[in-house]
């Protein structure tokens, strides 16, 4: 599928069939819910027809099939992501779906491991989202035309696992691809001047984060409550899993009785892993603190380098009076900055509660490129709304935000530098050009892998898709 790259004009001409824009599309994008009004009250005729027609088999790739309904869902997925679908043909979508199945098939052949526990957690999060959008479980089942929640969960699980396998296989294909400085220069010199990529407007962002802290009395009450849970489990035989379902404030594990399967390399808080791997089966930890709140943990099973654990998370509340105090503190910091009494970066070092950015004056690092520049059109929509109207050096008003567990915090944001849209310059935009050169080399590696694997894989394509102009040789002759 030819996907439009917003970063440059040049990549418009070089994008190949690599999943969905070579972006390793996420499981969350696969399950689509239009806005509740559209989905429930205004189902348009075209969508209704697509959902009601008899599902036909488009193609078979290895052990997997592509259905007509898969193509329909791909259209809806792209539309909900804001992609213009006017010029995207069914042939292009079928080509992309064939690739996804090819990756999944060979991921299984290569025994690439996937955490079932992680996929199950994603399913629960996805269902929670669906319920919030549509109202309740019954409406979700009705919307997706499913008879019961057990079968629907299994379908979501299989879909999520296959999607993850496809992603990991794609990553494996390109993980050792790299470019040298000579290759970057060679790549840039081969681009005609009239086709030099346009670099979108970029900004450097800094922020000061003020995190309200609960009172000592609230923390003590939280720890006391966790100790009560612990005593009830150890001395009275109460079910730890039931207490997790009833009381834990961790949305990712609450419905599953607080259960996680973890290894020492998994991205859990150090304190959490230390507690989990210090316990024997059946033991319950004393309350301990992480950045998320206060926990108790128990071990259900030890299996090699992994442990099955359950935990209960409680988050001490911050009173409205304390919230007001912290907001006033943030406002006083902003006043000192705007009046010229202190520089923004110095204020960040002194006052910010965000340890990841504090030492660098609050400067944010782009997680994709690992530099300080963010393309204005590609930053998180919430962050875009906070910075898009700021001039260089201007300081935002106090912004109220929420963390992953719903707790409020306050921040002050500034655009420390703006880089207007411009034609790529080798010296000034080396990292961007290197990224494009690497992307092109990865695309070539993926194309080579696909061509080799298609030859070794059972592929059958049915009418009317036999005559499509695919990027790879799917129709064997």
Q: How would you describe this protein?
A:
The protein is of the alpha+beta class and 477 residues long. The protein is built from 18 helices and 13 strands. The protein has a 4-stranded antiparallel β-sheet, covered by helices on one side. It has a 4-stranded antiparallel β-sheet with strand order 5-8-7-6, sandwiched between helices. Mean pLDDT is 85; it is low at 1-54.
Outline the secondary-structure elements.
Elements: H1 10-14, H2 27-30, H3 36-41, H4 45-52, E1 57-61, E2 64-67, H5 68-80, H6 90-109, H7 116-134, H8 137-143, H9 149-174, H10 181-189, E3 198-199, E4 202-210, H11 216-236, H12 240-247, E5 259-263, H13 270-276, E6 288-290, E7 293-303, E8 306-314, H14 320-338, H15 344-351, H16 355-358, E9 373-375, H17 381-387, E10 399-402, E11 408-419, E12 422-423, H18 430-456, E13 459-461
Antiparallel strand pairs: 1-2, 1-13, 3-12, 4-9, 4-11, 5-8, 6-7, 7-8, 10-11
Helix pairs in contact: 5-6, 6-9, 7-8, 7-9, 10-18
Shape call: globular
Strand order of the largest sheet: 9-4-11-10
Number of helices: 18
Find the structural class using helix and strand composition: alpha+beta
Helix residue percentage: 40-55%
How many strands, which pairing sense, and closed or not: the largest β-sheet?
4 strands, antiparallel
The termini sit apart by 22 Å
- How many strand elements? 13
What multimeric state do the chains show? single chain
Beta content comes to 15-25%
Radius of gyration: 26 Å
- Ranges where pLDDT stays below 50 over 5 or more residues in a row are 1-54
Mean pLDDT: 85
